[in-house]
Input
Amino acid sequence: MARAAAVLVALGDPTRRQVFERVAGRPHSVGELAEALPVSRPAVSQHLKVLKQAGLVSDMAAGNRRIYRMEPRGLQDLRAYLDHFWNQALAAFKTAVEQPPKEEG
Amino acid sequence: MTTQSTAAPVRTQIVVEAPIERAFDVFTQDMASWWPADHHILEGELAEMVFEPRVGGRIYDRNLDGGECTWARVLAYEPPQRLVFSWDITPQWQIETDPDRTSEVEVRFVAETASRTRVELEHRALERHGEGWEGTHGAVSSEGGWPKTLAAFAAHAAA
Output
């Protein structure tokens, strides 16, 4: 499904996996990551964007910087759960809404 | 200093072969016809799901014995285009009584043709459901710990 695919794509890139491993170890700013890895700041930002879209990291404003950290396991589970729930619910909604309205009498 | 933490929302959409008015109507006024039957907090046999069609209205379940369970508040009501409601349900599928710890669901209805409607759903502000989960950080960030976590996560998401 969409979420699982997003996670696999996000971690399929070796550099992005390195970024994620760093963030999983402890929260990092973009600058810290760019310094620690052989990657430019814009590239780090782009990788973080993909990781965030996949629900693997979250960000937080701290002064004028953004700090990235691994999204807590509970939040990952909740997102995966709700993703599954809403897909199931909307599929059932489609079935219900496409039934011809009942005739009067 | 204030800090604000954001998590990526859950987004999904579906296209239905029905006019926009009917799609909006079934979504709000006939919820029991499509809501997954095993996802009710209320005990006992479900009699109806009631959606009060106004900002400030409640969404609640009622069982055959007259018991009620309010699980959402209507935050925006713009028929037939848009709808926002709170999600007053904890990750453990219990009622959340603290509004600061609730997330929200936005549903948009877009008419693709006169008889076809795209329904876009976004469930956001999930991080408000709690900070208590952060204790798990150490356990999953250890060397070699995350691939296992992610494999489980991917399997869960694909289930």
Observations:
- The two ends of chain B are 41 Å apart (CA to CA).
- Strands of chain B lie at 5-6, 10-16, 46-51, 58-63, 68-78, 82-87, 103-113, 116-124.
- Chain B is about 20% helix and 35% strand.
